[in-house]
Amino acid sequence: MTTAPAPELLAEAVKKAAVAWISCGGADPRPVWVVPLEGRLYTVVGPREQPDPGLSRDQRPLVTLRGDHGGAIVTFPASASRVDPGGEAWDELVGQLSAKRLNLSGDDDTAARWAAECAVWELAG
């Protein structure tokens, strides 16, 4: 069982995160790129992005964030929810995510592709 981290430590780690290690259903943790927004982490999984670490099967993953030194600084149980492509926050959220996405191809409509082919996940601690 994972002990909940101090709220201040969790907030600071989330704010600085670019990569999270996600373990779903007891599987080995897998790295995914994330974007921190308003105390939550967001990630995109699917074709031409990154593989789903298991969020489609397990919406209670363990998330590990690492510090500048490379070692784990906090592990916490998260609540994962899929962001609705038709929801009111979609356009703004996808704009912020695509701005942080490295090596994004400029020849497609990212929002439409993510809505049709991928899943955007919100991870809250």
Keywords:
3 helices, 8 strands, 125 residues, alpha+beta, Pnp Oxidase, Chain A
Q: Segments where pLDDT lies below 50 for 5+ residues?
A: none
* Number of E-type strands: 8
Strand content: 25-35%
Structural class: alpha+beta
In DSSP terms (H or I, runs of 4 or more residues), the helix count works out at 3
CATH architecture: Roll
Lateral strand order in the biggest sheet? 2-1-5-6
- What's the alpha carbon Rg, rounded to whole Å? 14 Å
In angstroms, what separates the terminal alpha carbons?
A: 15 Å
| CATH secondary-structure class | Mainly Beta
Order of helices and strands: HEEEEEEEHHE
**What form results from the Cα inertia axes?**
globular
Write down the CATH topology.
Pnp Oxidase, Chain A
Main pleated sheet = 4 strands, antiparallel
Q: What number of domains?
A: 1
> How much helix is in the residues?
10-25%
- Average pLDDT metric: 91
